[in-house]
Design a protein that fits this description.
alpha+beta; 60s Ribosomal Protein L30, Chain: A; 2 domains; 10 strands; about 30% helix; Ser_deHydtase_bsu; metal ion binding
């Protein structure tokens, strides 16, 4: 395995004892917050595997709430994130699950408010790196380490080509792209990791395309 920097080995600058259990958890929470695009009013976190066994001792609970409050891995407020959330009137619940996960460091987050709900499953793969494996019932593979565009759309001919044309128009280079769908011709989710941050005008133009239902982004 090749490493691009020493931080790929020891993890990022962070609060907490473990890059996988603390920094990774914070990043999973922050991706969920980025996709929800606002502060949630209710948070339910289910821990699996190693996370379920050690989440209190390794600070996984405070880290994931810190991420949901949009705190970065090095933010000192992570230490009191649960208290901060409760002071804001945010409902917080932790659950431990007996099901055996594909990866030992797995968390499922359900966040909501009066406007909507988001469900996300993430795994912490070490060194602070993560993968998002499920979003609102769609299976995907999203690293969370690069800017990304997520497009919910009807599974219709020409939709992917239309999105690709808009990205080419704005000179956006695609690093990874995949499409998940629940059934042929039904709802689908396009996940596109790119090499640069995405301006709002790109999202606005994507939103005008036929068959597009929702467009969101994850910033670097």
């Amino acid at each position: 395995m090749k490493y691009r920097s020493v931080f790929d080995i020891i993890g990022p600058v962070m609060i907490g004892p473990s890059s996988s259990h603390t920094a990774g958890a914070a990043r999973i929470g922050r991706v969920a917050r980025s996709l929800f695009r606002r502060e949630p009013r209710r948070i339910i976190v289910s821990f699996y595997g190693s996370f379920a066994e050690t989440y209190k001792g390794h600070g996984t609970d405070v880290a994931i709430i810190g991420g949901l409050l949009d705190f970065d891995t090095f933010d000192e407020r992570i230490k009191t994130a649960i208290q901060i959330a409760e002071e804001k009137g945010i409902y917080v619940e932790f659950r431990t699950e007996d099901a055996v996960p594909v990866h030992p460091n797995t968390a499922r987050i359900v966040i909501s408010d009066d406007e909507g709900e988001l469900a996300l499953t993430g795994i912490s793969i070490g060194g602070g790196k993560i993968e998002i494996t499920e979003l609102n019932g769609f299976e995907l593979r999203l690293s969370g380490n690069h800017p990304a565009i997520l497009v919910v759309h009807n599974d219709k001919f020409g939709t992917i080509a239309g999105v690709a044309n808009v990205l080419a128009k704005f000179s956006i280079n695609v690093g990874h792209m995949e499409v998940a769908r629940k059934d042929v011709g039904q709802l689908a989710l396009m996940t596109i990791e790119v090499d640069q941050n995405i301006e709002e005008e790109v999202l606005d133009e994507l939103s005008t395309l036929p068959n597009i239902i929702q467009v969101t982004k994850i910033a670097d």
